[in-house]
Amino acid sequence: MDDATHQPLRGISRLSLGALSGLLAGYAAIAVAELVAAAVRPEAGPVIAVGGAAIDRTPPPVKDWAIRQFGTDDKLVLQLGILAVLTLLALALGMLATRWRLTGSAGVLAFGVVGGLAAVNRPDSTSFTDALPSGAGAVVGAALLYWLVGRLAPVEGTHDQGAATGEPGWDRRGFLIAATAAAAASTGAGLAGRALSGSQGRDAAASRDDVVLPAPASKAAPVPRGAALRIGGISPFMTPNGDFYRVDTALTVPKVDATTWKLRIHGKGVARELTVSFADLLKMPLLERDITLTCVSNEVGGPYVGNARWIGVRLTDLLERCGVRPPSAGGPADQLVARSVDGMTIGSPVEDVMDGRDALLAVGMNGQPLPFAHGFPVRMVVPGLYGYVSACKWIQDIELTTFDSYDSYWVKRDWARQAPIKTESRIDTPKPFARPKTGTVMVAGVAWAQHRGIDKVEVRVDDGPWEEARLAAEDTRDTWRQWSYPWQATKGGHTLTVRATDRTGVTQTDKRAPTIPDGASGWHSVVVTVD
Q1: What is the pLDDT of residue 465?
Q2: Is 5 a residue whose pLDDT tops 50?
Q3: What is the C-alpha separation between 437 and 64, in angstroms, rounded?
């Protein structure tokens, strides 16, 4: 038994192999949980459930910091962080089990309980069966850890290298075979789970591929000549779908099958409840409108603003069909709560939605069916309101209620109940810390004040006077507006600052405010050095 051929894993301590056992048990638990989740509901998987719970309980300033640091990769960073923590815990439980076998296995079961509770307490959970993936994974993981650590127990007739003669060792070969089999079985379970989940996603993708958007009954006017400036470095007037910002709490993008999708409208002041399918919406008169969206998490000068051409059904038409009246006309509801398939709730003022603006249930974006990341099959778009109080993606339910009787997701986390978009402007070029040459330098960017429109943009160099910039042609008051300013640059360091004035006469304030509770404010500046 001393020959290397008969002693695989020679020289590796029992504690290290215990850690490996814990890692394999954790891997098996996650793999089995994902397999069961594919059968129950993919969103009930432990990583997604625990990650969603972590997002829900993260303080708004921390969440805002994550968005600033990682952008649309914040969910990936969170999932990797969860897996890293689980890996460390699995290693620790494996080492613990080498001394206290039952305690280590019980620790795995405890994490299954945590995952199950997280799953059934998610806003989109509708059944206790959401706890099954975490529970099944934990049972398999605990049993595997108990079994693998048992293979490390002393076996008569074997001797550890360096041990006193006659002292029993443990079955290295048996452990190696068991660990390899466990790893292979776990990998198989994980691949099967991904295949099953993928088949559900393929159905949704096929339903999107089959969508043919009807010609809108009310087409958007062509973008005016001169609305899109030909200046290097400026944001394109129309934001391509692939570049449009995405800020939400969904750890994985919901894949909703349009053929089974339904929207229900109900609640206070609804005389006739209504349920419509995606096919029903496509048969209704569609509007095509250019609308700029802005995220409330957008810092001064930030990237979370984009402009697109949307196609959809006027939301007011559906609400009026249900007998809904705005508060100004005697309606009892002042809040419209939109619910997403992932449990997100977004509250919008009924008065704003029904005041004549082009509030849409959008089905298309830039001439295509909505991308999954932006809400396919249907999302809300309301000009003039920050996304967290208007832009519900993957919408499936609309309830009419009051602000006094219900707080939506973000309001529960200290954001304002109502949040019209603030007048803001941004310098796109030159970039911060750029080194332009002396002479004429084109300073350019965008300004927005949706549903009011931009009337003027001014630029200041250092502490000099404000100079009026040249405005590009306006598309509509619901879109951003490009601007430019030819600056005669002189050598040295300079600070360029921009401010905008909307059509109501309100000039963008210089008072700096954070994104919480109703959007950032202040002037955007960039520092450059002219060579």
Answers
A1: 97
A2: no
A3: 36
Long-range CB pairs of 225-229 (<8 Å, 24+ gap) are: 225/473, 226/472, 226/473, 227/472, 227/473, 227/474, 227/475, 227/481, 227/482, 228/472, 228/482, 229/444, 229/472, 229/482, 229/484
Other CB atoms within a 10 A radius of the CB of residue 126 amount to 10
Question: pLDDT tens digits, residue range 499-509?
Answer: 999 999 999 99
Return the closest-CA partner of residue 375 out of 338, 412, 418, 422: 338
What string of DSSP letters covers 367-389? TEEPPGGGTTT-EEE-TTB-GGG
HSE (side-chain half, CA atoms, 13 Å) at 301: 18
* Contact present, 248 and 66 (Cβ < 8 Å): no
Q: pLDDT higher for 14 or 280?
A: 280
Range with the largest mean pLDDT of 5-14, 198-207, 357-366: 357-366
Based on its alpha-carbon atoms, the radius of gyration of the chain, rounded to whole angstroms, reads 29
Non-local (6+) Cβ contacts of 191 within 8 A are: none
25 in helix, strand or coil?
A: helix
pLDDT, one tens digit per residue, over 442-468 is: 999 999 999 999 999 999 999 999 999
**Which of 246, 247, 249 is closest to 54 using CA atoms?**
249
Q: Which two tokens stand for residue 493?
A: 């360091």
Longest CA span, the chain:
94
Per-residue exposure over 429-461, b if at least 16 CB sit within 10 Å of its own CB, e if not: bbeeeeebeeeebbbbbbbbbbbbbbbbbbbbb
Quick: pLDDT tens for 17-59.
Answer: 889 999 999 999 999 999 999 888 888 888 888 888 888 887 8
Chain centroid to Cα 153, Å, comes to: 47
User: pLDDT-derived band of residue 4, with 50, 70 and 90 as boundaries?
Assistant: very low
User: Tokens at residue 22, please?
Assistant: 């814990």
Closest CA to 267 of 329, 326, 340, 336: 336
CA distance 91 to 22: 5
Q: Is 364 exposed, middle or buried (0-12, 13-18, 19+ CB in 10 A)?
A: buried
Give the strand pairing for 262-267 and 395-401: parallel
Compute CA 250 distance to the chain's CA centroid, rounded to the nearest angstrom.
4
Per-residue pLDDT band for 158 (boundaries 50, 70, 90) equals low
Inter-axis angle of helices 14-40 and 101-120, nearest 10? 30
DSSP state of 257: -
Mean pLDDT on 91-105: 92
Amino acid at 46: P
Rounded to an integer, what distance in angstroms lies between the CA atom of residue 441 and that of residue 486?
6
